[in-house]
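**Fold in tokens:**
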Amino acid sequence: DQYLLLRPEMLLNWEKEILTYTQKDSPEIWQADLWRRLLAKTDTDMHLAGIYAALLKSNLAHNSKLLKILPKRLFVIGVSALPPMILNILEKLGEIIQIHLFFTNPSPYYWADIKKDDAINPDDLQTDHPLLAALGQLGRDNLYHLNLLKSQSIDAFVIPEHLEQSACLTQLGDLTSQLAYEIR
């Protein structure tokens, strides 16, 4: 199930007997074999990965049935992360309708390349903000994949006026100010 959503290209390669990993004892070997056996027992060759690949290759502007049922604009709000497959589908739909994707971000700066360091020496200078590093790989991956999209981006990060660097009187205000101003 997760492979269909998160690794559709891998499944399509498995159908062609192309492996992603080259280790002889990789679990991918038996997984690819199992995938091909499952496909051989089904009535159709269209599964989510195949439909996804066909969608990305298609010219949606010539599909009159699709154009009639789709809204003129699609708003995606409040999603903390989307798999790359869904982002690519939204990007493809963006060729024929307006897609507005709103996502929360704790910082106005790009932080997808921050690494979590569990063994931080307090005597060393720290360059990455530990809270952003602790937000996890999912948040970093999502930000990375969003930046890969061919789209128009409007940054709307708002830093409240009361959080000016020198005006923070609470720990929460100080933390928010650090994320807004002192990320790197």
User: Anything to note?
Assistant: Residues 81 and 163 are 27 Å apart (CA to CA). The chain has nine helices and two strands. The longest helix spans residues 28-40. The chain has a mean pLDDT of 78.
